[in-house]
Amino acid sequence: MSSDSTSIKTKTTSEKIYSYKSRKINNSYKDIAKQR
């Protein structure tokens, strides 16, 4: 049970990091599009 919740917590953390990174990438692409 405890190990289960730990794995879930780790998964959500990695998902947050991934979504944050992808958002940063999307923002940088928007900036590049604006500069053109």
Short description:
This protein has one domain. It has 36 residues and is mainly alpha-helical. Helices cover 94% and strands 0% of the residues.
Considering the chains and any ligands shown, give keywords for the structure.
rod-shaped, 36 residues, 0% strand, 94% helix, mainly alpha
Helices and strands, with pairings:
Layout: H1 2-35
Tell me what you see in this structure:
This protein has one helix and no strands. The chain has 36 residues and is mostly helical. The mean pLDDT is 81. The termini are far apart. It has one helix at 2-35. It is rod-shaped. It has one domain.
**How would you name the oligomeric state of the polypeptide chains in this document?**
single chain
Q: Structural class of the helix and strand makeup?
A: mainly alpha
Shape estimate: rod-shaped
Annotation field: number of helices: 1
What is the count of structural domains? 1
Specify Rg, calculated over alpha carbons. Answer: 16 Å
What's the order of the H and E elements?
A: H
* Ends apart, CA distance between termini: 53 Å
The helix content, as a percent range, equals over 70%
**Average pLDDT for all residues:** 81
Largest sheet: none
Unreliable segments of 5+ consecutive residues? none
Number of DSSP-assigned strands: 0
Binned strand content: under 5%
